[in-house]
Specification:
This protein has helices spanning about 25-40, 40-45, 45-65, 85-100, 105-120, 270-275, 445, 475-480, and strands at about 1-5, 75-80, 125-135, 140-150, 155-165, 170-180, 185-195, 200-210, 220-230, 235-250, 250-265, 280-295, 305-315, 325-335, 345-355, 400-405, 410, 415, 420-425, 430-440, 450-460, 480-490, 495-505, 515-525. The protein is α+β, with helices and mostly antiparallel strands and about 525 residues long.
Length: about 525
């Protein structure tokens, strides 16, 4: 019997393949068959009638196997079709769940789970799990046959151009993936991204679903990033780093990052805060995330809730240039169905704080790249990425900012244009939103999955480091909130979710870059 992609919908078992396991049930079937023979002797010699009888017996047996507790024991697990993949990898994904089954119903479900686990490795074209009768001398046993099909060409890749309207930038991205090179389910991937006038990134990584006796997946990635913030600020950032995935099970994720980071000021007009942090520093941080998502959809949630907590501790490397900080973020989303026009009210709140630790921490600044920045065109409904989005504001367009310095320009015999500001981010960030989504009246739009929404969002970003916390108060926190409202149309596609919104900024402060008008938002699927 095959257990493929639908573990709860198995095919009918073959009556002739389980003689010992279902002896009692077969006896009942034979009694029923003898009754049919007595009623109609002509049909018993008719091949078509006998075929219908066998099919009826098979259906009856299948119904009984679903409803009655039939004891069963897995005798052997047989693996076929793997030329590159190690048997130990397949066994580690399937053996525990299969051998834990004690009844036929449990074994059916276990076969489906094992099938799903093997498919999730992303190294097979197909996976089939078949249940066969065990040795005749061992009644009540079953052999499990796992047959896999490996791809003929394990190398895959793609290339694409992506746009970020809020940042007015384009990115050319290419990825390549090599599957199962050494037969341990290892996935090797490399990616290159080039953003016109903004960023360049190249990385190579490997992930292992299991390694020897370690039960959790492991991953490692080496990356080189050059981030150009000159459209928003006056500095560039480069980073060369190594990240290690140490734990990834269920809702938990633990990783370690070691990066050498450099800030430069090619404009020579950086603000005071930026100039103080120019040069090199070392990031040595451990990051832990706890996440669960019980919403019915991540793209258009209509019921359920989601939660994400992320804790990052930096400064674990014994070096004076290692940045010592603790960063904590929380995200919570809740979707409430309203019962008409598929309407749903989505509520969300995000919070984050970062502060230094160690000797002199109360007077020390936090590093620019570790602070929170707010603004941009990412949907807060879909994303669980911390307190970063308030619709209606440009990227990094909300929060503390400083004027750039003015320098003399000897070539012109005067003073260069030092106008502009440097967003310098904050240490305490809060955002919240409410989003009412609903179907549109047009049937054509409903069939295309296009729907409307009305939203309101608010956010606050404040500095706490360098004794700024002494001047912080609940009154100042309340006054620091900015807000916006709007409405729009959402167009889901296979690659991303696009929003065309009209945003009206209700409140902003002096250096903020909020603007009422039409805004496009893109969120990946």
């Amino acid at each position: 019997m095959d257990a493929q992609s639908e573990p709860d919908s198995p095919t009918h078992p073959n009556l002739n393949r389980y003689p010992e396991l279902y002896e009692e049930i077969r006896e009942d079937e034979e009694d029923e068959e003898s009754e049919l023979e007595e009623d109609d002797d002509v049909d018993t010699v008719n091949p078509e009638a006998r075929g219908r009888t066998e099919q009826a017996n098979m259906d009856s047996l299948f119904r009984r196997l679903e409803t009655e507790r039939v004891a069963v024991h897995v005798h052997d697990i047989i693996i076929k079709g793997n030329t590159r993949t190690k048997d130990s990898l397949i066994e580690s994904e399937a053996e525990e769940v299969l051998r834990g089954a004690t009844t036929f119903q449990q074994l059916l479900r276990a076969a489906g789970v094992a099938n799903a686990r093997l498919r999730a490795l992303e190294i097979f074209d197909s996976v089939n799990v078949t249940l066969d009768a065990g040795p005749p001398e061992l009644p009540g046993t079953v052999n499990v046959i796992i047959e896999v099909s490996e791809p003929k060409y394990p190398l895959a890749g793609n290339i694409g151009i992506f746009t970020k309207p809020g940042a007015r930038s384009w990115t050319l991205e290419g990825t390549g993936k090599l599957k199962n090179l050494f037969g341990y389910g290892d996935l090797w991937d490399t990616s290159v991204a080039y953003g016109w006038g903004q960023s360049t990134e190249a990385s190579i990584g490997v992930s292992l679903p299991r390694f020897k006796s370690i039960p959790t997946p492991l991953s490692a990635r080496i990356s080189a990033i050059s981030q150009d913030w000159l459209k928003f600020s006056s500095y560039k950032e480069r980073a060369l780093g190594l990240s290690l995935g140490l734990l990834s099970t269920g809702n938990h994720d633990l990783s370690y990052n070691l990066s050498w980071r450099t800030l430069t000021d090619p404009s020579q007009m950086a603000s005071h805060t930026v100039r103080r942090q120019l040069g090199h520093n070392l990031l040595s941080a451990l990051k832990y995330s706890f996440k669960f998502d019980r919403r019915d959809s991540a793209i258009r949630p209509t019921r359920g809730f989601a939660f994400l907590s992320t804790t990052q501790v930096g400064g674990l490397f014994p070096d004076l240039r290692s940045m010592r900080f603790i960063r904590q973020e929380f995200d919570f989303r809740y979707a409430i169905p309203l019962g008409f026009y598929r309407a749903a009210l989505n509520l969300g709140i995000s919070a984050g704080v970062v502060f230094p630790w160690g000797s002199g921490a109360l007077n020390a600044p936090t590093y620019l790249s570790d602070r929170f920045f707010m603004g941009g065109n990412t949907s807060p409904v879909c994303s669980l990425i911390g307190p970063t989005t308030v619709l209606g504001f440009k990227a990094r367009g909300l929060g503390p900012a400083e004027p750039r310095r003015i320098v003399s320009d000897n070539s012109n015999g005067g003073v260069s244009d030092g106008s502009g500001i440097d967003p310098v981010g904050g240490d305490l960030a809060l955002t919240a939103f409410a989003d009412l989504s609903f179907d549109l009246p047009s049937k054509v739009l409903r069939d295309a999955g296009i729907y409307g929404h009305i939203f309101a969002s608010t956010g606050s970003l404040n500095k706490l480091s360098e004794i700024a916390y002494k001047g912080f108060s609940p009154q100042k926190l309340r006054d620091s909130f900015r807000s916006s409202v709007g409405f729009g149309v959402i167009v889901p596609t296979q690659l991303f979710r696009m929003e065309v919104n009209y945003c009206h900024v209700l409140k902003q402060q002096g250096n903020d870059q909020g603007k009422s008008g039409v805004q496009f938002c893109f969120s990946p699927q």
